[in-house]
Automatic annotation (TrEMBL):
Species this protein is from: Streptococcus suis
Protein name: Capsular polysaccharide biosynthesis protein CpsC
Topology of the protein relative to the lipid bilayer: Multi-pass membrane protein
Residue span(s) of domain Polysaccharide chain length determinant N-terminal: 10-101
Pathway the protein contributes to: Capsule biogenesis; capsule polysaccharide biosynthesis
Keyword Membrane: yes
Primary location: membrane
Keywords carried by this UniProt record: Capsule biogenesis/degradation, Cell membrane, Exopolysaccharide synthesis, Membrane, Transmembrane, Transmembrane helix
Listed transmembrane segments: 25-44, 179-200
Family designation: Belongs to the CpsC/CapA family.
Amino acid sequence: MNNQEMNTIEIDILFLLKTIWRRKIVILLMALLSAGLAFAYSSFLVTPQYDSTTRIYVVVQHAEAGAGLTNQDLQAGSYLVKDYKEIILSQDVLTQVATELNLNGNLKEKVSVSIPVDTRIVSISVRDSNPNEAARIANSLRSFAAQKIIEVTKVSDVRTLEEAVPAEEPSTPNTKRNILLGLLAGSILATGLVLIMEILDDRVKRPQDIEEVMGLTLLGVVPDSKKLK
């Protein structure tokens, strides 16, 4: 690439940047419009969802008896934690919760279970449009799941580390994040449209366009008489 081509590229980039600056009002309006639509969507079209979480700790028999834990015990415990999630989400446990609370619909879709690596701490989260209902379901699920875990795995005890309480703020939608994403998306879209329209516009607007588009040598430029006054 020679110096003339490099100069042409630099001039083109500079021209496009100037075009974006000239259209800054349009870009700003498009960004604000997108942010407004994101706010309206988050505030009026989406039903807020609330998360409520309860945590339990599974006590192994050796620990309860005061005996030391062997490597085999620890390894077995790490394997068992993978079973706890399946037990909590089992149809037997979910049916008991639904019956006690007189719930309709698919309860499993509202429940998520997470277990930190190398621990026997289990977090049970429930998402619902009613924060009080989410906490009520989570606590009931914890109670029935604890009984089922003891019954199936023969662990010594399942203790409550943290009860579920109603959330004060919805987990979804995240209105602030959606507004920022709308603002960013609107800016990018408007900038892209401005650049595409400018690139597709084949009208001669600058003296350089005669050389670049038509391949002719520019001999001179006639000044605009209005600008000279």
